[in-house]
Amino acid sequence: xxxxxxxxxxxxxxxxxxxxxxxxxxxNLVLGVLSGPFQLVEKIALAPIASAITPIPTHFHFGTGxxxxxxxxxxLYSEFSKEKEKIDRKELFQKQRQEKREQQDYQGYKEWxxxxxxxxxxxxSVPPEDDGEFFLTR
Length: 138
Description:
Blueprint: H1 10-52, H2 66-125
Protein backbone atom coordinates (compact mmCIF):
# COMPACT_ATOMS: atom_id res chain seq x y z
CA UNK A 1 0.00 0.00 0.00
CA UNK A 2 2.92 2.40 0.68
CA UNK A 3 4.63 1.87 -2.68
CA UNK A 4 1.77 1.47 -5.12
CA UNK A 5 2.05 1.98 -8.85
CA UNK A 6 1.04 5.60 -8.71
CA UNK A 7 3.68 6.41 -6.07
CA UNK A 8 3.21 7.78 -2.65
CA UNK A 9 4.54 10.64 -0.66
CA UNK A 10 4.98 8.59 2.55
CA UNK A 11 8.36 7.10 1.57
CA UNK A 12 9.60 10.56 0.67
CA UNK A 13 8.56 12.01 4.01
CA UNK A 14 9.94 9.02 5.89
CA UNK A 15 13.34 8.84 4.19
CA UNK A 16 13.95 12.58 3.85
CA UNK A 17 13.14 13.17 7.52
CA UNK A 18 15.27 10.16 8.46
CA UNK A 19 18.20 11.49 6.44
CA UNK A 20 17.91 15.05 7.75
CA UNK A 21 17.45 14.13 11.41
CA UNK A 22 20.08 11.39 11.18
CA UNK A 23 22.62 13.71 9.60
CA UNK A 24 22.05 16.33 12.31
CA UNK A 25 22.43 13.66 14.99
CA UNK A 26 25.62 12.26 13.45
CA UNK A 27 27.13 15.72 12.91
CA ASN A 28 26.37 16.65 16.51
CA LEU A 29 27.92 13.43 17.70
CA VAL A 30 31.04 13.81 15.57
CA LEU A 31 31.55 17.48 16.39
CA GLY A 32 30.96 16.86 20.08
CA VAL A 33 33.49 14.05 20.18
CA LEU A 34 36.05 15.97 18.14
CA SER A 35 35.71 19.26 20.01
CA GLY A 36 36.24 17.67 23.45
CA PRO A 37 40.01 17.10 23.10
CA PHE A 38 40.47 20.53 21.53
CA GLN A 39 38.93 22.23 24.55
CA LEU A 40 41.38 20.39 26.80
CA VAL A 41 44.31 21.32 24.56
CA GLU A 42 43.12 24.93 24.48
CA LYS A 43 42.96 25.06 28.28
CA ILE A 44 46.46 23.62 28.59
CA ALA A 45 47.91 25.84 25.87
CA LEU A 46 46.31 29.06 27.10
CA ALA A 47 47.01 28.55 30.80
CA PRO A 48 50.42 30.33 30.74
CA ILE A 49 48.95 33.20 28.73
CA ALA A 50 45.96 33.55 31.04
CA SER A 51 48.18 33.64 34.11
CA ALA A 52 50.48 36.25 32.53
CA ILE A 53 47.70 38.71 31.70
CA THR A 54 46.70 40.86 34.62
CA PRO A 55 43.05 41.91 34.61
CA ILE A 56 42.00 45.53 34.77
CA PRO A 57 41.36 46.40 38.41
CA THR A 58 37.66 46.59 39.22
CA HIS A 59 37.89 49.85 41.13
CA PHE A 60 38.84 51.77 37.97
CA HIS A 61 35.71 52.84 36.15
CA PHE A 62 35.40 54.38 32.75
CA GLY A 63 33.47 57.35 34.01
CA THR A 64 33.02 60.78 32.60
CA GLY A 65 35.95 62.09 34.57
CA UNK A 66 38.96 62.92 32.44
CA UNK A 67 41.38 61.53 35.04
CA UNK A 68 39.65 58.14 35.20
CA UNK A 69 39.63 57.78 31.42
CA UNK A 70 43.28 58.83 31.14
CA UNK A 71 44.33 56.43 33.87
CA UNK A 72 42.42 53.55 32.25
CA UNK A 73 43.97 54.22 28.86
CA UNK A 74 47.45 54.51 30.37
CA UNK A 75 46.88 51.18 32.13
CA LEU A 76 45.81 49.53 28.87
CA TYR A 77 48.72 51.14 27.04
CA SER A 78 51.18 49.76 29.59
CA GLU A 79 49.70 46.27 29.21
CA PHE A 80 49.96 46.44 25.42
CA SER A 81 53.50 47.79 25.60
CA LYS A 82 54.49 44.87 27.85
CA GLU A 83 53.09 42.45 25.28
CA LYS A 84 54.91 44.30 22.49
CA GLU A 85 58.18 44.04 24.41
CA LYS A 86 57.65 40.29 24.80
CA ILE A 87 57.02 39.95 21.07
CA ASP A 88 60.08 42.06 20.23
CA ARG A 89 62.29 39.96 22.51
CA LYS A 90 60.94 36.77 20.97
CA GLU A 91 61.58 38.05 17.43
CA LEU A 92 65.11 39.11 18.38
CA PHE A 93 65.80 35.69 19.91
CA GLN A 94 64.49 33.91 16.81
CA LYS A 95 66.59 36.15 14.57
CA GLN A 96 69.74 35.48 16.61
CA ARG A 97 69.02 31.75 16.62
CA GLN A 98 68.57 31.78 12.83
CA GLU A 99 71.85 33.68 12.37
CA LYS A 100 73.65 31.20 14.64
CA ARG A 101 72.20 28.29 12.67
CA GLU A 102 73.29 29.89 9.38
CA GLN A 103 76.79 30.47 10.79
CA GLN A 104 77.03 26.81 11.86
CA ASP A 105 75.86 25.68 8.42
CA TYR A 106 78.45 27.94 6.79
CA GLN A 107 81.21 26.55 9.02
CA GLY A 108 80.20 22.97 8.23
CA TYR A 109 80.14 23.70 4.51
CA LYS A 110 83.54 25.41 4.72
CA GLU A 111 85.06 22.44 6.58
CA TRP A 112 83.54 20.06 4.03
CA UNK A 113 85.15 21.96 1.13
CA UNK A 114 88.50 22.19 2.93
CA UNK A 115 88.40 18.44 3.56
CA UNK A 116 87.64 17.80 -0.13
CA UNK A 117 90.52 20.07 -1.23
CA UNK A 118 92.88 18.31 1.19
CA UNK A 119 91.76 14.93 -0.15
CA UNK A 120 92.39 16.10 -3.72
CA UNK A 121 95.90 17.26 -2.79
CA UNK A 122 96.66 13.93 -1.11
CA UNK A 123 95.27 12.03 -4.10
CA UNK A 124 97.52 14.01 -6.46
CA SER A 125 100.55 13.30 -4.28
CA VAL A 126 100.11 9.49 -4.58
CA PRO A 127 102.42 8.05 -7.28
CA PRO A 128 100.59 7.03 -10.48
CA GLU A 129 102.00 3.47 -10.50
CA ASP A 130 100.15 2.64 -7.28
CA ASP A 131 96.97 0.78 -8.29
CA GLY A 132 95.55 0.45 -4.77
CA GLU A 133 92.45 2.31 -3.76
CA PHE A 134 92.98 5.24 -1.47
CA PHE A 135 90.33 6.26 1.02
CA LEU A 136 90.36 9.30 3.25
CA THR A 137 89.35 8.77 6.83
CA ARG A 138 88.88 11.37 9.45
